[in-house]
Every structure is written in C-alpha cells, then in structure tokens.
Amino acid sequence: MVESTRIVLASRPEGAPTPANFRTETYELPEPADGQVLLRTLYLSLDPYMRGRMSAAKSYAKPVEVGEVMVGQTVAEVLESNSPDLAKGDVVLANSGWQTHQVAPAKALRKLDPGAAPVSTALGVLGMPGFTAYSGLLKIGNPRPGETVVVAAATGPVGSAVGQIAKVKGARAVGIAGGPRKVAYLRELGFDAVIDHRAPDFAEQLRAAVPDGIDVYFENVGGAVAEAVYPLLNTFGRVPVCGLIASYNATGAPTGPDRLPGFMRSILTKSLTVRGFIMSEFVDEMFGDFLRDMSGWVAEGRVRYLEDVVEGLPNAPEAFIGMLEGRNFGKLVIKVG
Q1: Is residue 252's pLDDT more than 80?
Q2: In angstroms, rounded to a whole number, what is the distance separating the alpha carbons of residues 322 and 316?
Q3: Domain 2-124+306-335 sits in which CATH superfamily?
Q4: How far, in Å, CA of 122 to CA of 129, rounded?
Q5: Number of neighbours of residue 261 by Cβ within 10 angstroms
Q6: What is the 3-class SS of the chain, one letter each residue?
Q7: pLDDT for 119-151, tens place per residue?
Q8: Distance separating alpha carbons of residues 151 and 164, to the nearest angstrom
Q9: Is residue 155 a contact partner of residue 174, using CB atoms and an 8 Å limit?
Q10: Phi first, then psi: what are they for 98, rounded to 5°?
Q11: Residue 59 scores a pLDDT above 80
Q12: What angle do CA 69, 70, 73 make, to 5 degrees?
C-alpha cells in the first residue's frame, strides 16, 4: 500500500480564504487496476480559478465539496502501471489535485517529453495558462498589427503570455502590474509601456500610455483597473474576459454609483465586443496550433516565462492565499515530489 497526503477543503471561505479553510489528511491508496497507474506528484499548479471552486455558487464547473481534495493540474511520475500506454518512469500531465499520490486511469493522462521543455512548463506557458492567453487573445481579441493591446495582471502566466503574443502579432503591448519589481520585469519582456496600478495617478499614466486608445483589453482583474481602462476603449474594441480576481473574495456588491448603465452605453455606442470565455471551449479547434506555435516562440526566445516555485505541499494553502493577494511573481507552482 502507498500512503498519500492530501489537502482537502475543510470549510467554505467567507471572503478571503484562510488556512482554516484547508485540512491535511493521509490515506492509503489501492493498487492500480487494469488500465490504471499509480502517480507521484512532482509539481502542482496553483491558479486563481480555484477560489471559485471553493464556493458553492453556480459557475462553469462543479464546486469542490467540503471534505474533498482541492482540485488542480499536476505533473506526475508513473510509479506503477497496469496500462500498455504508460510505463514506470513516464512523466504525465494529470489532474491529481492537492495530493502527493493518486491512482488514475491512463486514458485521462497526457504523456510529456522531459527532453522537449522543463516538465513544469506543462502547467504554465505550455499548458492551461499559456493556452488561455493564446486562445482568448487570438480568437476573441484578434489583435492586428499596429493596434494597442492592454493586459492586466501582466506578470502572471496568462498576462505575460498575452503581451508577448501580442508583440509577435505586431501589436503594441501595454502591461498593468503592481509594484516596481513587476514593472521592471515587464520592461525586460519588451512590453511597449508598463503602468503600476498602485500609483496614485494610475488612470492618468494609463491614458498617456495609450495615445491612440485601446483596441484590445484582456481582462484578468476587473475592479479599479477595469474602470480606468474602459473609457479608453476604441470603437470596435474587443474585451476577452478571462478573470476578475479583484472581486473573487468580495462578500457583497461594490460601494459607489452603479457603473453598469454607463458601461452598457459604451458597448452600444462604441460597438464593443465583450466576451467571457473558458479556454476549454477552444481546445479542439486550437490546442494543436497552440503547442506548435508556443513551443516555437519559447524556443526562439520570443516568449519568455517566469515560475514562482514553492517547496512542499504543506505550503500550498499559504501560497494560494498569497497569490490571491498578488504576492506571487510569475506562474505559481508547488514542488511536491
């Protein structure tokens, strides 16, 4: 028998998650049956969508039930195999969640090539975040050469890829991030302009950075950042809505005047396209192209990536809480194995 350690949802958070919302357990795994493999988790991806899965509110995916293991993509090593498709020692992309080991059906796993790229990139630039950036920007944003693309949370795995793909496509990339270290990193990546959303004159700096207006705004944040962006959108502007992390921990409606009528008026008068999306909508159509294009851009140095690696599964709750507060720098992964 193999003993696994897992982190489960102990209670649903009210507002920002706390360590009390998580519980660590150990349990014994059964032997893998026919068509199954025993996995040892090497890396666990932490992503903002997990906050929504901790809530019982209706969403695009089933919530994690209290007592269930927290969800999450992983890179794992095959320890035992009862499938002809995978062998001991293979490295795979899985959905093991926040746990050290799992028995899983081989057909649900994707074999990775450790010689092609660091395996952790399957959780970042060559995985779900990278594909989210690629599909949302190119399918909905459709940036044209010379247009201005603005992206919030621009040092995150999605935002940084959005800005760099925009540059590959000949557009002008403007990044929004928090703090001088993140601002400096975006300049290293070649963003045409970078604005610190913590600056007291953020809205004025943003307006100065987009003299020709904004053609594409890749929405990751919402809140005050979005309020500064929306008046600057051009006619026929496109807004792929990927995330709204500024409101994930909200417990009520925002204070102040109702801005929705003004926003709806802008959608009408400027002929804006505002489209929410989940990257899984585009997998069948675009994932093969994504792997080809993004792998090539990374190999050529046209798209760079940054990983924020935290050691040890026990540190996952605190790292996750910090990510929701913007404390991570780059793609947040837990090194489990």
Answers
A1: no
A2: 10
A3: Medium-chain alcohol dehydrogenases, catalytic domain (3.90.180.10)
A4: 9
A5: 9
A6: CEEEEEEEECCCCCCCCCHHHEEEEEEEECCCCCCEEEEEEEEEECCCHHHHHCCCCCCCCCCCCCCCECCCCEEEEEEEECCCCCCCCCEEEECCCCECEEEEEHHHCEECCCCCCCHHHHHCCCCHHHHHHHHHHHHHHCCCCCCEEEECCCCCHHHHHHHHHHHHCCCEEEEEECCHHHHHHHHHHCCCEEEECCCCCHHHHHHHHCCCCEEEEEECCCHHHHHHHHHHEEEEEEEEECCCHHHCCCCCCCCCCCCHHHHHHHHHHCCCEEEECCHHHHHHHHHHHHHHHHHHHHHHCCCCCCEEEEECHHHHHHHHHHHHCCCCCCEEEEECC
A7: 999 999 999 999 999 999 999 999 999 999 999
A8: 11
A9: no
A10: -85, 75
A11: yes
A12: 115
Angle between helices 157-168 and 128-135 (to 10 degrees): 40
Task: Please give the structure tokens belonging to residue 333.
Answer: 């992964």
Structure tokens at 161: 């890829």
Q: At residue 53, what is the residue type?
A: R
Q: At residue 247, does pLDDT exceed 90?
A: no
Q: What angle do CA 109, 115, 121 make, to 5 degrees?
A: 60
Q: Which two tokens stand for residue 147?
A: 């247009």
Determine whether 276 is exposed, middle or buried from the number of CB atoms within 10 Å of its CB (0-12, 13-18, 19+): middle
What token pair was written down for 242?
């990927």
Give the tokens for residue 13: 């958070």
Question: Could you tell me the two tokens for 263?
Answer: 């926003």
Q: What is the pLDDT of residues 197-235, one digit of tens each?
A: 999 999 999 999 999 999 999 999 888 999 999 999 999
Inform me whether the pLDDT recorded for 249 exceeds 80.
Answer: no
Question: In one letter, which amino acid is 26?
Answer: T
What amino acid is encoded at 45 in this protein? S
Domain ranges of the chain: 2-124+306-335, 128-279
Is residue 191's pLDDT more than 90?
yes
- Give CATH for domain 128-279: 3.40.50.720
